[in-house]
Every structure is written in C-alpha cells, then in structure tokens.
Amino acid sequence: MGEIDPAFVQEQEHRPKLSIIKAKGIPEIDLSPLFHRQVPNPPAVESLVKEIRSACKEWGFFQVTNHGVPPSLRHKLEEASRVFFAQSEKKKVVRQDMNLITQWTNQSPQYPPNFRVIIEEYIEEMEKMAYKLLELIALSLGDEAKRFEEFFKDQTSFIRFNHYPSCPYPHLALALDDTKMPVR
Q: What is the pTM of this model?
C-alpha cells in the first residue's frame, strides 16, 4: 500500500463517503444584533435570548455566527500556525523532558515572531465572545446577565494547536484529507 498502514484500511462497506454531509436542524444563532450599535437593541437581545433558550432546551448546544471575532484575526492565526508547523521538528519541540509537573514552562512559540501576540489577541476576542454568550445563557434561564461571571473571573485560557498530515488515501481509510471543517 505504500504510505498507509494496512491496519487503517477499512473494508469496502465501512469506507467513508467522501461527500460532505450537512447536519440538519442544529440551531444557528446570529449574534450580529449585539454588534450593530454601541448599546444593543433590547428587543434584539430578547430575541437572541429566546433563540438560545430554545436551542439549549431542544438540542443542548448551538452554533453561533457573526460573533464579533474578526475573521482577519482567525486568518492571521491560521497562517502563523502554518508557518510554525512548517518548521523542522527540532525547532518545534520546546524540550525533550516532558515532566510537566515539576518543570512547567510557558510553551508559547517564539517563531514566527508574532505568533504569541496573535494567539493572545485571539484568546482575548474569544473570551469576550464567551462572556457575551454566558450573559445570554444566564438571561435565557431567567437570571441576571452577569450571573456566571464570578465563576470565570479567575480562569486561565489554554489554546492547543494540532497538525495532522493529511491521509494520502482518504478514500480507503477513516481519515482526513486536505479539506478542513468550516470555521465561522
């Protein structure tokens, strides 16, 4: 087979269908009403609260769009991660000893030079969005908007980047090809 371990080759009847399957019915909530004005429109916020209440009750989760995290920032993050992963393994590894309990170090990459700054900006924007969602969820439960804030005020954010080479034969195995899931 060449580049694929035979252990990963699926029987014909179990091989993946390579067409994209779009889930139907998953609630998609457009957060743009929060960003149209300096102060959000109360009826628009109430409409979002109702959508979130319904999504949480019926599905237990939802997808958000127009969430205020700039797409340009996500693109910068993706490009910087591509540059990082294009390095040799020796340059990517911070240390060989993986005893994280006794030898913790900040593992933010130094290369590319702006990677750390981009990561910090991205985390900051994602946290803003998360707090807005927490407020909307609290309101959907009939509570005050800031109800959950105290539980997260001392939180620490983590971000992990993984890179898996694409499978050379995705039609034979349960694997990923060069396409990627959409991120909005």
A: 0.73
In a domain, 41, yes or no: yes
Terminal CA-CA length for the chain: 37
Q: What b/e string do you get for 17-29 counting C-beta neighbours within 10 Å, with b at 16 or more?
A: eeeeeeeeeebeb
**Predicted local distance difference test score (pLDDT) of residue 181:** 44
H-type alpha helices, 22-180:
42-58, 71-85, 89-92, 115-140, 149-152
What is the residue range of 125's domain? 26-152
Q: How far is the C-alpha of 60 from the C-alpha of 27, rounded, in Å?
A: 10
Instruction: Inform me whether the pLDDT recorded for 148 exceeds 70.
Output: yes
Examine residue 120 and state whether it is found in any structural domain, yes or no.
Answer: yes
In a domain, 15, yes or no: no
Which residues are 28's β-sheet partners?
63
